[in-house]
Recover the amino acids of this structure.
């Protein structure tokens, strides 16, 4: 009997002493750790059904981008712009106009040179500085911070507007035709303000932004209007030369860009911003005045100069 009781007491003592090392270890100060999080369920091996289900949200994100909010826009809001009233719909795939578009791209593709391609690539870096030469002034964000801020906001407004295009405006890129080989990067999807959407070809986004910029800059510096519009058209031509936009994409962009710029100019936000830009516009005018002017040839002086006789033995 005593042996049984002794065994029970020894077992109880052993059971009480077993957790002691853990308790002593817990008493040692340790490096603070972040609070424990609930373990997320581990996904099992992918199946065909789960793979299709995973792809669907991505497709939906591409097909139906989130609508831009009014607070995101500074000068334009997609909700206040009726695109169908400002520009006609793109040519249908089986139409004669679409066939003409493809023929022009193939013609340009056969004749473009390496120099043409380099010029087209330069247009990819389009921003406000693209208009330096047209304005006859060096544009720099350090010297003109308000101007750059204004046109960055306008660029964002236009990009948000393109996300809200009507379904009837959706048009595939030219490279869906295997015979058309772009020399510029293909744009299959774009991201604007965190929103991903399929890269629609109609109207041409770069040509649209270039036109809007040119018209607004011409509103600020009226005597440079012709040079500004010509510079904007170079962006559109680069898109067709590079094979990434149809000619009708560019025409629609120029038409829509002009209309949107006029809407911006008519708005209160542009009127207020134009006042804020006055100091920088004065600086721009002063900078232009300091530029060395080319010396115009004097016809009378040239006529009075003795001409050297033509060499009888040209080298």
């Amino acid at each position: 009997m005593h042996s049984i009781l002794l065994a029970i007491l020894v077992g109880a003592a052993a059971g009480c002493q077993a957790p002691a090392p853990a308790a002593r270890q817990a008493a040692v100060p340790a490096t603070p750790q972040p609070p424990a999080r609930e373990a997320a369920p581990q996904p099992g091996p992918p199946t065909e059904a789960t793979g299709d289900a995973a792809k669907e949200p991505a497709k939906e994100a591409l097909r139906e981008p989130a609508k831009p909010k009014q607070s995101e826009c500074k000068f334009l809001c997609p909700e206040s712009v009726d695109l169908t009233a400002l520009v006609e719909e793109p040519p249908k795939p089986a139409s004669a106009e679409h066939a003409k578009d493809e023929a022009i791209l193939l013609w340009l593709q056969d004749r473009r040179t390496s120099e043409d391609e380099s010029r087209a690539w330069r247009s990819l870096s389009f921003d406000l500085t693209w208009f330096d030469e047209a304005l006859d002034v060096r544009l720099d964000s350090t010297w003109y911070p308000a101007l750059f801020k204004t046109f960055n906001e306008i660029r964002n407004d236009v990009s948000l507007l393109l996300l809200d295009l009507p379904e009837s405006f959706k048009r595939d890129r030219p490279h869906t035709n295997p015979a058309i080989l772009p020399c510029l990067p293909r744009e299959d999807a774009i991201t604007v303000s965190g929103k991903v959407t399929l890269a629609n070809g109609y109207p041409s986004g770069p040509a649209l932004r270039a036109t809007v910029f040119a018209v607004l800059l011409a509103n600020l510096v009226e005597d440079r209007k012709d040079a500004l519009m010509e510079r904007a058209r170079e962006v559109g031509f680069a898109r067709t030369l590079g094979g990434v936009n149809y000619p009708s994409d560019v025409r629609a962009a120029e038409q829509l860009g002009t209309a949107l710029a006029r809407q911006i100019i008519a708005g209160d936000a542009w009127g207020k911003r134009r006042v804020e830009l006055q100091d920088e516009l004065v600086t721009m005018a002063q900078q232009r005045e300091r530029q060395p002017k080319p010396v115009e040839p004097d016809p009378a002086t040239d006529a009075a100069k003795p001409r050297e006789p033509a060499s009888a033995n040209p080298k």
User: Anything to note?
Assistant: The first strand starts at residue 189 and ends at 192. The CA atoms of residues 29 and 35 lie 16 Å apart.
